């Protein structure tokens, strides 16, 4: 029983070790000469003039969030659409209910004016 989990454990160790190993090696072997210029915030190499705080419109965030939701919808619907002819009636009805809920969300966002770019 334990032998069947050996590949899973090995892949877990490798999966965790690959990203951590370069960070540890760079921390050990990398040069450490901090100075004032290296510690400053880097912002495109140009020093800012005036107020650096820029307030973004919330609409950009909401627009991106709506895009993300409907993009994930495509990820969930793709396997359903590929196996559509092999699915039982229950799975087809569940998929249609899922699509109806998403269309309802789209209509709601459209009526609220969230999808209008201004």
Structure overview:
The protein has a domain at about 60-110. The chain is about 65% helix and about 0% strand. It contains 4 helices and no strands. Helix 3 (about 60-80) runs antiparallel to helix 4 (about 90-110). The longest helix has 25 residues, at about 60-80. The chain is flat. The model has no long low-confidence stretch (mean pLDDT about 85).
Short note summarizing the structure:
With 118 residues, the protein is an all-alpha fold. 65% of the residues lie in helices and 0% in strands. The mean pLDDT is 85.
Structural class: mainly alpha
Share in β-strands: under 5%
- Whole-number mean pLDDT: 85
Q: Report the count of strand segments.
A: 0
Rg measurement, Å: 25 Å
How would you sum up the major sheet?
A: none
- Cα separation of the termini: 61 Å
Helix-strand sequence? HHHH
What is the count of helical runs?
4
The outline comes out as flat
**Share in helix:** 55-70%
Protein topology:
Layout (H helix, E strand, L loop, with lengths): L5 H24 L6 H4 L18 H25 L6 H24 L6
Helix pairs in contact: 3-4
């Amino acid at each position: 029983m334990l032998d069947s989990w050996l590949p899973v454990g090995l892949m877990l160790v490798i999966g965790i070790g690959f990203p951590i190993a370069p960070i540890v090696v760079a921390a050990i072997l990398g040069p450490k000469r901090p100075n004032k210029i290296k510690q400053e915030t880097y912002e495109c190499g140009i020093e800012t003039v005036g107020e650096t705080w820029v307030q973004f419109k919330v609409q950009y965030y909401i627009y991106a969030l709506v895009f993300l939701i409907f993009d994930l919808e495509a990820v969930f619907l793709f396997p359903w659409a590929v196996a559509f002819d092999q699915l039982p009636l229950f799975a087809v009805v569940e998929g249609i209910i899922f699509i109806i809920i998403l269309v309802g969300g789209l209509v709601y966002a459209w009526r609220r004016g969230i999808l209008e770019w201004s």
